[in-house]
Amino acid sequence: MSPICEPTANDAASVPARTTLCVTGPAYTGKTALIARLAASTGAPQPETSDIVRLVDAGPSDGDERSVGALVEVAAAADGVLFVVDQDLRAPEVAAIARFVAKRKPLYVVLNKADQFSPADRDAILLSIRAKMPMGFVGSHVVSVAGEPSPIQREIQDARGAVRIETRRPSPDIAALTQLLSHVIRPSLGRALQFQAAS
């Protein structure tokens, strides 16, 4: 009996993608970690039961005019754009988003590191982002996630009254983004979306 072979990274990359999304946004917003988290959330691609969503890390959007122009062309070749931020939109991000939207590709704004804000502050930032988007932009295409939550420290007291500090990392929360993408990129009947980082 021949051994069962697991698909390699090269095999997975050869599976045709249903959709390709360009992932960009300012530097240090957690784009690479979010791509890895999305890919890990659905495991290895299963061509028989999956519609592949390939995620292309196109780099940061806060470069000079030439690099932003090149980024817009990468986005134009993709099926859509995930624009990842970790705070409210500033003027350079608003300008970059306007250029992506002009390419008439679906655009989704992802507020990452949402665990670092109180619920009220997070909701206020989401409202502000939606207000800064171009006319006709769908407000539900702005979501918040915590791709790699920050560790939390808490005091724990034992029965003798001794106190120790315990550090734990909350579980990632990307449900709002996966639900959005499953809604807008509807998988074929009997299939599921499978996220894959482009190599």
CATH homologous superfamily assignment: P-loop containing nucleotide triphosphate hydrolases
| CATH hierarchy: architecture | 3-Layer(aba) Sandwich
Number of strands: 8
Q: What are the segments in which pLDDT stays under 50 over at least 5 consecutive residues?
A: 1-11
CATH fold-type name: Rossmann fold
Distance between the termini: 32 Å
In sequence order, what are the helices and strands, one letter per element? HEHEHEHEHEEEHE
**Chain-averaged pLDDT:** 86
The whole-angstrom Rg is 19 Å
How many domains make up the coordinates?
1
> Roughly what fraction of the amino acids lie in strands?
25-35%
Which structural class best describes the helix and strand composition?
alpha/beta
Largest sheet: 6 strands, parallel
CATH class: Alpha Beta
Number of helical regions: 6
Spatially, the strands of the biggest sheet line up as 5-4-3-1-2-8
**Which descriptor suits the 3D outline?**
globular
- The share of residues in helices is 25-40%
